[in-house]
Design a protein that fits this description.
mainly alpha; Rossmann fold; 2 domains; 5-stranded parallel β-sheet; two-stranded antiparallel ribbon
């Protein structure tokens, strides 16, 4: 299958036919790109913005593939699609298949959440559609907490979709008579893609729980880097095809160094959820990459030669394998060693181990799999393997061993796909909590909220009075008089309103068992910012009960003002129970410190120490180390129960002290009457 452009554009004598087969500096640019991405994943504290390396790859791909197609079209007057796609398959598929088979089989040994939706992941990798398959099965909040084994393949899918579609569209661009017009058209499309990303980002951030994954993974929204590379290829065609023999441009060094420095500086900047990063930082990285490529490939550029020195050339040659291997290896190490995903943090020792294993795996893959297939093709490689089986004993043993390993890996991958759960253990726990709440019959009428007038004489700060009980006679007191003492009243579920996040939702069955009749309002992705609005709605509808349990610290920092507003809404007639947080997230210590400080300065606020209760029992948590299983839910409910008991004892003690003061006043008066 071939595509042919108009005759006047397809002459083999076109300057484009003289385009070089290899461009200086591109291997070094690949090394820069993959280094940024690998450091970002394995040592995230070092380069919080290192994900821009993906956009550098996109620009390189757009430039290189367009240059290859232009050269072929100029020399032959046509583009042989089958040949082009065959070459791409030889370059991409061997390493991809090896990573999928090895890491899927390893995931079977690790087990747990690392297997979640593995079948869909393998399908996405095999069909060059990983980004869209991932988005189609995205479960929102839990997608971030699930250690998706091949998540880094999303960018490969974007590039592979470009490889499939771009050769079909290129002849349409060649209908434009000038190179500047073709480059301009590509720039306009890149601008449209970036604007589309910005528009969707603004829309997502304006929606509660808005997720930017669709914006980042989308081929349409993230195509601007590739399109800038396409524009660069069109714009530099004549310069690269007909270089000046004596040209030694001085500007390439400063421009190239400034562009690389800009990329490194940009990678030190932490991303923000907004157009400043999406597409701002990504577009800036793409433009810097384009500048570095121009400086590197320009005829006579010393900067390009500098980029191609060792060890950058070595890394660049293996950059594809390094990119493929590093993320699955990291996910497997974290899941196997500490039962968490990368979002929980990457210890330095784990990152270093993953780096060493990645470099070893990439070298073995490059030497024994990728290079042979690229040189001899798929059928040629199989024929060589067949000849090795019939050769001398040493070669036969090696060939048979390779075949046996391949069969074992295919079987292991099949078993892993068959064993893969549809949802993570954390989501399964939350789903169970949602079912438990859904099975509850229609709630009875809410317990009436005590009014300040009704409770002012019952106890301190509006608390109901504790019942009195007899005590031994006091000397000097008339016979039959009794002394009051503290009398806590058991708190029942119909006195408790609970508002929380997915941790409380996962614990709902245990809360319902511990406190029958409790009103639980919990949802995933809920933070403390949502608390005041929810409490106000409950208060306005008369459904806010005397004891208010708040568990809203898992999904982000807690704002002091939000706590004050919730305490004001609850009012002096109610008691607040703040459940502290436990999760492998860097904001959790700050959340718990803020909650403890707030409780210490507010007399009717108490802490339910979920963090302290679950810390010695991590086996009662799901694979994300956040959401409790049934046993962990019981621990959560017990922590809440203990806090409620302390609060009730405190209420009873205040009521006792008030009764005792009244009793003493009465006793003093009675004593004076007997004198």
């Amino acid at each position: 299958m071939t595509l042919t452009a108009p005759t006047r554009l397809s002459s083999p004598s076109s300057p484009t036919a003289d385009l070089p087969r290899r461009h200086a500096g591109l291997d070094g640019m690949r090394a820069v790109a993959v280094t940024l991405v690998v450091i970002y994943h394995l040592f995230p504290a070092m380069l919080p913005g290192g994900f821009i390396g993906v956009d550098v790859f996109f620009v390189i791909s757009g430039f290189l593939i367009t240059s290859l197609l232009l050269r072929e079209h100029a020399r032959n007057g046509r583009i042989a699609l089958v040949g082009f796609w065959r070459r791409r398959a030889r370059r991409l598929l061997p390493a991809l298949a090896l990573v999928v088979l090895v890491c899927s089989s390893a995931a079977l040994l690790v087990g747990g959440d690392v297997l979640v939706r593995l079948g869909a992941q393998v399908l996405g990798a095999a069909t060059f559609s990983y980004n869209w398959v991932s988005l189609a099965g995205d479960s929102g909040y839990f997608s971030a907490a699930t250690p998706e084994l091949f998540r880094n393949f999303w960018s490969l899918a974007v590039e592979e979709q470009f490889y499939v579609v771009w050769p079909l569209l290129l002849p349409l661009f060649l209908l434009l008579p000038r190179a500047w017009a073709r480059a301009g058209a590509a720039v306009l499309l890149a601008a449209a893609s970036a604007a589309w990303m910005a528009l969707l980002v603004a829309s997502a951030l304006g929606t509660p729980g808005g997720d930017l994954t669709r914006v980042y993974f989308g081929t349409d929204t993230h195509a601007f880097g590739i399109l800038l590379g396409v524009a660069l290829a069109f714009a530099t065609t004549r310069v690269l095809a007909r270089p000046s023999a004596s040209s030694r441009p001085r500007w390439t060094g400063p421009v190239g160094a400034a562009a690389i420095s800009g990329l490194v500086l940009l990678s030190f900047l932490a991303p923000v959820d907004g157009v400043v990063t999406f597409p701002g930082a990504l577009l800036a990285a793409s433009l810097l990459a384009a500048a570095a490529i121009i400086a590197g490939v320009w005829p006579g550029s010393r900067f390009g030669a500098a980029l191609d020195t060792q060890p950058l050339r070595w890394i660049g040659d293996r950059s594809y394998g390094i990119y493929l291997w590093h993320w699955p290896i990291l996910v497997l190490l974290l899941a196997g060693l500490q039962g968490t995903g990368a979002e929980a943090g990457v210890p330095g020792s784990v990152g270093l181990t993953a780096l060493v294993l990645t470099l070893v795996a990439a070298e073995l893959s490059y030497r024994f799999v990728e290079t042979p297939v690229r040189r001899h093709g798929f059928r040629g490689s199989l024929r060589r393997l067949g000849r090795a089986v019939r050769a001398r004993a040493g070669a036969r043993i090696g060939a048979v061993t390779a075949g046996a390993v391949a069969i074992a890996l295919v079987a292991g991958t099949g078993a892993a796909v068959a064993a893969a759960p549809a949802v993570s253990s954390g989501q399964a726990m939350v789903d169970a909590g949602q079912r438990a709440l859904a099975e509850i019959d229609a709630p009875a009428a809410p317990a009436p909220t005590p009014s300040p007038e009704a409770t002012a004489t019952a106890g301190a700060e509006g608390a109901p009075a504790a019942s009195g009980s007899s005590a031994p006679a006091v000397p000097g007191v008339p016979s039959g008089a009794s002394v009051p003492r503290p009398a806590p009243t058991p708190v029942t579920g119909d006195q408790i309103s609970a508002v929380g996040d997915s941790v409380m939702l996962a614990s709902a069955p245990a809360l319902l068992e511990r406190f029958p009749g409790i009103a639980v309002d919990a949802a995933v992705s809920r933070s403390a910012w949502a608390g005041p609005g929810i409490l106000q709605q409950l208060a306005d509808s008369g459904q806010l009960r005397p004891y208010v349990v708040l568990g809203l610290g898992t999904n982000g920092p807690v704002d002091r003002d939000a706590l004050e507003r919730m305490a004001t809404i609850a009012g002096p007639e109610r008691t607040l129970i703040l459940v502290n947080a436990f999760a492998p997230r860097d904001w959790i210590p700050g959340v718990n410190a803020e909650l403890a400080d707030f409780a210490a300065t507010h007399p009717r606020v108490f802490i339910a120490d979920w963090s302290g209760a679950i810390t010695p029992k991590p086996e009662l948590l799901a694979g994300d180390q956040i959401h409790p299983d049934s046993g962990g839910g019981t621990v959560f409910a017990d922590a809440v129960g203990q806090a409620v008991d302390r609060a009730e004892e405190h209420r009873a003690l205040l009521a006792y002290e008030q009764e005792l003061r009244a009793w003493r006043r009465a006793h003093f008066t009675v004593g004076r009457e007997f004198e």
